[in-house]
Automatic annotation (TrEMBL):
Lineage top rank: taxon: Bacteria
UniProt GO BP: maltodextrin transmembrane transport; maltose transport
UniProt keyword list: Signal, Transport
Record carries keyword Amino-acid biosynthesis: no
Tagged with keyword Phosphoprotein: no
Membrane spanning residue stretches: none
Any one annotated GO CC term: ATP-binding cassette (ABC) transporter complex, substrate-binding subunit-containing
The organism of origin for this protein: Thermogemmatispora argillosa
Name of the protein: ABC transporter substrate-binding protein
Record-linked Pfam families: SBP_bac_1
Family matches, as InterPro entries: SBP (IPR006059)
GO MF: maltose binding
Family assignment from sequence similarity: Belongs to the bacterial solute-binding protein 1 family.
Amino acid sequence: MALTLVALLTACGGGSNTSGGTTSGAGASVTGPKNALVRCPSNTNTTAASPESGQIHLVVAGWASTPAEDALVKQGLQNFEKLHPNVTVTWTPIPGDYATKMRANVASGNVPDVFYLQPPMAQEYIPAGKLLNLSPYMARDHVSPSTYYPSLMQDFDCADGTVFGIPKDWNSLGLFYNKTLFQQAGLGDPSNWTWDDLKNAAQKLTKRGSSPANSVYGIALPADASRWGAFLFANGGQMVSADGKQALFNSQAGIQAAEFYTSFELNHTGVMPGDIGASWDGDAFGKQQVAMTLEGGWMIPFLAQNYPKVQYGIAPLPIGPSGKRGNLLYTNAWAAYSGTKYPGMAWELIKYMTGAEYQTQVLHNGFALPTLTSLANDSYFQQNPGVKVLQDGAAYGQPDFYGVADTEIHNDVSNALQSIMLGKQSVADALNAAAQKVNTWIQQNVAP
């Protein structure tokens, strides 16, 4: 069957049966990493439906992305159709604010059968019973949660470890460095650097000109919680308490991490991208206005397409004062609507898109990292050592998601970092004010 591409804002999965088809396993289930931040639903399917027979039409949704990613997803769905000739898949990329439009679809019951699930969406949809419980399917088909990196699985499980989504791909941060500028500064491989090494190197690499736009800076560091968090974790700190109900980023470990992170801007050995007219730090790095930056695998195709002449390497993030590295993990999942008419076939699609065949395609296309631990030694990593550095981030990274107050934490911490970098507040004052905002929001919006 030919894959149907429909650029719609909504897609109908139809029906309201949460367990349709023949079931097996009679309650057999598996559990993944327990997630204290997500309450389990009061009612969910407890058995696995067999793949439905007859002609089946699955509607699959995700956000509109790059042409390369869309082509990869469509190829995977077409391959699935070949394996299941009775199934037609309609791919419906949703442009714009994906989470908001999906929330409207869920509220109206007009939901795709299978769709991309972001961590904040999981926190909302799982307790409300909007997602198909995948644990019985995994048990029946012998798909262990340990097949995938635990740090990636956790965001899509609930408090008792029941699984509602399987990570589709992921990324971490690496230290991207300009080999040409490093050579000119007499610097070697930064793979075993400490924080002090990073600070000293940034000073050596900085060449001040008549204006910021005519200068070369050691490193680009945006006022972004989704970068600073890696330093917080490396210093032994945490963003939020285990139950997600108290901000902890203003601890002494957080203050020290913020002092270090913002010192580059304040000492003029680092720069926020906007200061030099760059749209983001990847752009500043590509223009060779900065010698280093912290980014993920998305930088690789960006640089290849826009700045192919830049010679660069990728190193692990520097070792913190605690003697450990920190990193952030970014992931989304495949999930199915609890009301799909075809739960058995919806699971088959999720299983294929998170299985070895398609995950290998994801890796070899250079789009993202595979979620299967079995691919950690794939030959692609030997051929692309920089990508292996990003893959290794799974061992020392934590998800860049912080529970019910995730949006508030990201916004308030990022604003605090910017205030520090602009010299408007001290580190302690900025982080304490941000923590107070987050805690007030939690008190007003989260049940005790």
